[in-house]
Specification:
Helices cover about 55% and strands about 0% of the residues. It has ten helices and no strands. The structure holds iron/sulfur cluster.
């Protein structure tokens, strides 16, 4: 398929996903950019639901750079023990909080380079912050975005980084960063990893993978 044809299909796909959910929201609970950064760091290999369950009360109470530094690593770890990889995440959160205070006046930096210099912050996390907080035309490729994009035939890449470049090449910037949310939600609730709900999918006639899943063949 040509890039032009792929772009036309992407328009059709995103138009339908927007019709179903015109204002998609990040499912991680947060009240400040710092809290979002903390939650995204903690969501690695953990569900948004488990991160929210651990953090919502802390966030409502105003968790910020200073209060995390005051808790110290052991104190913060105590609050997040129920989340997977908690010791590593607590260490990273304390380190990045100290850097934010010293180098960035406790603000969340807007440049990718600065974001990725923070402990525990990789390209995907930086993309989430750039898109969600600063509305930059990015797409964070997590497991859902990667899978949905591949099944819809929008990329055939083997890594999230390459998939991101391919998706950015065929998605008009006006759809970004909302496309990130639509693909995540589609992957989380319809195009499930093991048993996608093709019979209920609004994209079934646009999908190059449906024959792999309908009739229970896979
Ligand atoms: S038709 Fe099936 S495989 Fe294709 S996007 Fe929909 S749920 Fe996923």
């Amino acid at each position: 398929m040509t890039v032009k044809a792929t772009k036309a299909r992407v328009e059709a796909i995103l138009t339908r996903l927007r019709a179903l959910n015109p204002e998609p929201r990040c499912e991680l609970y947060y009240e400040t950019p710092y809290q979002l950064l903390i939650s995204v760091v903690m969501s690695a290999q953990a569900t948004d639901k488990s991160v929210n369950a651990a953090m919502v009360e802390l966030y409502k109470a105003g968790l910020n750079v200073d209060s995390v530094l005051a808790m110290g690593e052991a104190g913060f770890l105590d609050k997040i023990r129920r989340i997977g990889l908690a010791p590593t995440k607590a260490r990273n959160v304390l380190k990045l909080s100290a850097i934010l205070k010293q180098k960035f006046n406790s603000e969340i930096p807007r440049s990718r380079e600065d974001l990725e210099s923070l402990p525990g912050v990789g390209r995907k996390t930086a993309n989430v912050i750039l898109g969600e907080i600063y509305r930059e035309p990015t797409i964070a490729v997590d497991t859902h975005v990667f899978r949905v994009g591949a099944r819809l035939g929008l990329h055939r890449e083997g890594t999230p980084e390459k998939a991101e470049q391919k998706l950015l090449a065929v998605i008009d910037p006006t759809w970004l960063p909302m496309a990130h949310h639509w693909f995540i939600l589609h992957g989380r609730y319809t195009c499930l990893a093991r048993a996608p709900k093709c019979d209920l999918c609004c994209l079934v006639d646009l999908c190059s993978s449906k024959e792999n899943f309908v009739s229970g063949t896979k």
